[in-house]
């Protein structure tokens, strides 16, 4: 069952019972989950996990979904061996915990992964998607990394980069209307700032009635009224990647 009664929005949703179609590999100094399509492709997507880490089955489920749509997908351990957050942890310690895992300091790992995708997977067009913590990392990368073509930030924590909006690449922002972590006024401000400062294509979309994590942390069969929006979010993500990769 969905644990919607828990106090922290990051706990909303489910841990999928899913094994994954890909494999774990060593990429430079980090471990990563990689899934490749049966037909060769020069398109790849870096998948940036949320606070629950690179081994969360939900994130691997999304990576495999990308592969089913023709992409090489890679989900690296952006915590670089540091322990992921556990739902059983004390949320009172969360702020101290997350300070040691800065979504704005993923550049070294991304460079290593980009080299791997180009050298080992034949990738020429590379995008990035990320959830929550990873969504904030996507925004950071879209502001500064010239080697990525596009990004999708799913309920990325806006407050981490709220004063930076000059994106280098087309970026799609997905938010839930009922997200307790990201108030709608923050989303409205993001839209205003992007309109003023952004010179590339972007879109900000709010999905009615949805809580934090809905695209990858809710099972489609949990709540009939959520299902269309879960599916729509996933479809929109893939359509955006298809458009720019």
UniProtKB/TrEMBL annotation:
<dbReference type="GO" id="GO:0016787">
    <property type="term" value="F:hydrolase activity"/>
</dbReference>
<feature type="domain" description="Dienelactone hydrolase">
    <location>
        <begin position="30"/>
        <end position="245"/>
    </location>
</feature>
<comment type="similarity">
    <text>Belongs to the dienelactone hydrolase family.</text>
</comment>
<protein>
    <recommendedName>
        <fullName>Carboxymethylenebutenolidase homolog</fullName>
    </recommendedName>
</protein>
<dbReference type="Pfam" id="PF01738">
    <property type="entry name" value="DLH"/>
</dbReference>
<dbReference type="InterPro" id="IPR042946">
    <property type="entry name" value="CMBL"/>
</dbReference>
<dbReference type="GO" id="GO:0005829">
    <property type="term" value="C:cytosol"/>
</dbReference>
<keyword id="KW-0963">Cytoplasm</keyword>
<dbReference type="InterPro" id="IPR029058">
    <property type="entry name" value="AB_hydrolase_fold"/>
</dbReference>
<dbReference type="InterPro" id="IPR002925">
    <property type="entry name" value="Dienelactn_hydro"/>
</dbReference>
């Amino acid at each position: 069952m969905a644990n919607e009664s828990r106090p922290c929005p990051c706990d909303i949703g489910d841990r999928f019972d899913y094994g994954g179609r890909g494999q774990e590999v060593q990429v430079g100094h980090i471990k990563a989950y990689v899934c490749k399509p049966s037909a060769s492709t020069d398109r790849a997507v870096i998948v940036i996990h949320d606070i629950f880490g690179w081994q969360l089955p939900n994130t691997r489920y999304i990576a495999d979904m990308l592969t089913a749509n023709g992409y090489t997908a890679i989900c690296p351990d952006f915590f670089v061996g540091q322990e992921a957050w556990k739902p059983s942890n004390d949320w009172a310690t969360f702020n101290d915990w997350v300070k040691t895992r800065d979504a704005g300091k993923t550049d070294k790992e991304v460079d290593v992964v980009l080299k791997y995708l180009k050298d080992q997977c034949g990738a020429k067009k590379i995008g990035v998607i990320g959830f929550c913590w990873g969504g904030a990392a996507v925004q950071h990368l879209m502001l500064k990394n010239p080697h990525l073509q596009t990004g999708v930030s799913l309920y990325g924590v806006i407050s981490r980069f709220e004063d930076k909006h000059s994106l280098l690449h087309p970026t799609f922002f997905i938010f839930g209307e009922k997200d307790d972590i990201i108030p709608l006024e923050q989303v409205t401000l993001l839209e205003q700032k992007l309109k003023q400062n952004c010179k590339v294509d972007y879109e900000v979309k709010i999905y009615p009635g949805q809580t934090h994590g809905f695209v990858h942390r809710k099972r489609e069969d949990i709540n009939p009224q959520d299902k269309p929006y879960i599916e729509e979010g996933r479809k929109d993500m893939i359509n955006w990647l298809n458009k720019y990769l």
